[in-house]
Amino acid sequence: MHVTGKRREFRPLVFAIRNAIVSAALCVLFAPAVCAQSYPSKPVRIIDGFPPGGATTFIARVVGERLTDRIGQPIIVDNRPGAGSNLGAAIASKAPPDGHTLFIALTSSLAPAPSLYPRLEYNLLDDFTYIGMLATGTFVLVVHPAVPARTITELVAHAKSKPGELKYGSGGIATPLHLAMELLRGRTGTEVVHVPYKGAGPLVVALTGGEIQLGFSSVAAAIPMVKSARLRALAVSSARRAKILPDVPTVEESGIPNFDVTGRYGLLAPRGTPLAIIQLLNAETAKIVATSDVEAKFETVGIEAATSTPDGFRQIMRDEIAQWAKVIKDANITPVD
Fold it and tell me: Looking at the domain covering 138-236, what would its CATH class be?
């Protein structure tokens, strides 16, 4: 009887262990459905490292509105601009890893940072868990109508006939528009003078006014001027043509091989965020950006819906870090304080 009593005392412990093993197995097999049932328990904040009004804010709000309906909690976009979105990234990297703080990342802005700022407050690859892509955007190479070039080949020939005379604009030193032109300049061996502006808007104004002769611009900022013939579009920077500019070739199609400067937008979470939450957010955001209404909204501002696995998005960031490290070194680019 004494032995039987001990066995009875162990039964609750045996049942508890068995239930724990079953729960763990269910978490492995059905992680989003079982382990993320309590998520989210409060509003979810998406930190945006740029000021309101840009593409990152637009994407975060469009996706956030629909994600609210799917997960049952409000999505709040929190703009924390500064240092080319590095301030927002640093804040996001230090947030609790519970899925209630996310970060909307633009690869073409963040990937150059490790080469530009050796003392960053975060590590882009180590301090984040990658969720997945939401959209892609391209840049368009535009020239003033007075420039006698309708292709990149003609532009390169014209620039080489006037070394150091042509001026190109950018949205600022070490910004994606600057780096895209430095990549092109390095590949073609042209000598053109860099004139930095405070954003794509002032850049386009300077181009249409003839202060400068060429430059990469965001598609959204350039399209009105291209359609009104105040600027001429020569090529887009991405590996494939933009839906909104179907007749404009890519730089690669124009004779510059392996040229791909694509802005890729996606979500990150602080390192240590549970896998179940990452899988849930990846699955739900992929469904959202695949809907026709979201695709249509994105196309109005010159971006296109895109998805990826978490590992796929991380590899893209890794590849871009390496690409921009070489460009920055070769062009001896240093950021301005």
Answer: alpha beta
